[in-house]
Design brief:
The structure is a single chain. The chain has helices at residues 2-5, 63-69, 121-126, 150-153, 155-164, 187-190, 231-248, 286-300, and strands spanning 13-17, 20-26, 31-37, 40-43, 45-46, 49-50, 56-61, 71-83, 86-89, 93-98, 108-113, 136-140, 169-173, 200-204, 207-211, 258-262, 304-307, 313-316, 330-337, 343-351, 354-361, 366-373. The longest helix has 18 residues, at 231-248. By secondary structure, it is an alpha+beta fold. It starts with a helix and ends in a 5-residue tail after the last strand.
Length: 378
């Protein structure tokens, strides 16, 4: 792949963010890049200055245009020397990718991966279950074990490259382990966001997703963070966003038949687990998470929460005692790491009012199945 992709580290990812796509192109060296879709050209710029010194080039492109054209081309020129009055670059290389938008009708095939904790091959192998029928990949946090280096935070892109080949949409969601280490502060510059926010909605076909980001799983003052955490005020910001989004009613737009919540941490479940003798260090933000659930139940009415964090593959029914905040939909926890060579993903087929789930391991074997009856308030 290194020789065939030149300066590209791996295949691009077409990330879904709100009503558009962000084409993310990881690179192994400095480069000037542009993307063409039909007769339109997009540049990676900072207020008009073309960016060359980055490990990921981000292009916010028209979803309507890419869905219609079903193809895009990456143009990359490795930068040899950038001087004040000129720039020496290698000849531009081009890479064209076919693109398959999410279908408006028929079954929707989704692969959900979380909690890889540094694994690449096993999760990617488990995600081969649907083959070319896969419509959407969700990478839902803790893909790397921590973010000490830039190379580590590029792992989600490499898994997305292995699974999608740059040809279908991807939703990227952060986990708590992704936020640990010196490179974590760079993630907002190297990942698709909504104007810097890692929480946003996504519209794809007949699906509307709400992505919420709990950040870390213990209080900001926990010694494990060494003073680097300020997630509580940031969760308050998300609460304000959630209120505005709920009042907007955008999730009721014509054509939306399914509404789902994506969060690495299943915040509807109070985590009362002890850790090294500490009393319930994970049971945090009760007022905030209760308010999130209230808004879900009273206004947005999701039919499924998709989460990870607990290293399990299971469905927590909406009427189960474990659903302690009483979110009025089932909770799918879909990512189970084993040894370094083992991983199980959750593979969803959604059609009409049913969601069929196949938990698939790295060998392509179905470990178990679940079925969820979906219902959405109109």
């Amino acid at each position: 792949m290194a020789s065939s992709l030149g300066v590209l580290l791996c295949h691009p990812s077409v990330a879904a963010v709100e009503d558009n796509y962000v084409i993310a192109v990881p690179v192994r060296d400095k480069a000037l890049m542009r993307v063409t879709i039909g007769d339109k050209t997009y540049y990676d710029t900072a207020n008009g200055v073309r960016i060359s010194d980055t490990r990921v080039h981000l292009f916010r492109v028209s979803k309507e245009l890419l869905d219609r054209e079903k193809s895009y081309t990456i143009h990359a020129a490795r930068v040899i020397l950038r001087l004040p009055f000129t720039c020496f670059s290698a000849p531009e290389q081009s890479y064209t990718y076919s693109f398959r938008p999410v279908p408006e009708e028929g079954p929707m095939h989704i692969c959900h991966i979380s909690d890889c904790h540094g694994r690449r091959k096993a999760p990617a192998d488990s995600a081969a279950f649907f083959g070319k029928d896969l419509n959407l990949l969700i990478l839902n946090g803790d893909i790397q074990d921590y973010s000490a280096t830039i190379d580590q935070i590029l792992l989600p892109y490499q898994i997305a490259s292995d699974v999608t080949g740059g040809e279908i949409p991807v939703i990227f969601s952060r986990g708590n382990h992704d936020l640990r280490g010196a490179a974590a502060e760079k993630m907002s510059l190297l990942y698709p966001t909504a104007n810097g926010r890692s929480y946003f909605y996504v519209r794809l076909g007949a699906f509307w997703f709400l992505l919420l980001d709990c950040g870390e799983d213990k209080r900001d003052t926990h010694p494990e963070y060494g003073g680097t955490a300020a997630y509580e005020p940031w969760r308050v910001e998300q609460t304000e966003y959630l209120h505005k989004l709920a009042e907007s009613g955008v999730y009721r737009d014509a054509g939306i038949r399914h509404r789902m919540v994506i969060s690495h941490v299943p915040f509807a479940i109070r985590n009362l687990e002890d850790c090294r003798g500490e009393k319930t260090p994970f049971d945090i933000e009760n007022d905030i998470y209760n308010e999130w659930v209230r808004v879900m139940n009273e206004q947005i009415h999701p039919e499924l929460m998709i989460a990870g964090h607990f290293h399990q593959t299971e469905v927590v029914p909406k009427d189960a005692p474990r659903n302690s905040r009483a979110l009025q939909c089932d909770i799918l926890i879909g990512g189970k790491p084993g040894s370094k060579d083992e991983y199980t993903s959750a593979n969803l087929t959604v059609q009409d009012s049913l969601c069929l789930i196949a938990y698939v391991n790295q060998s392509g074997n179905i470990v178990k199945r679940d079925t969820i009856d979906l219902h959405i308030e109109k």
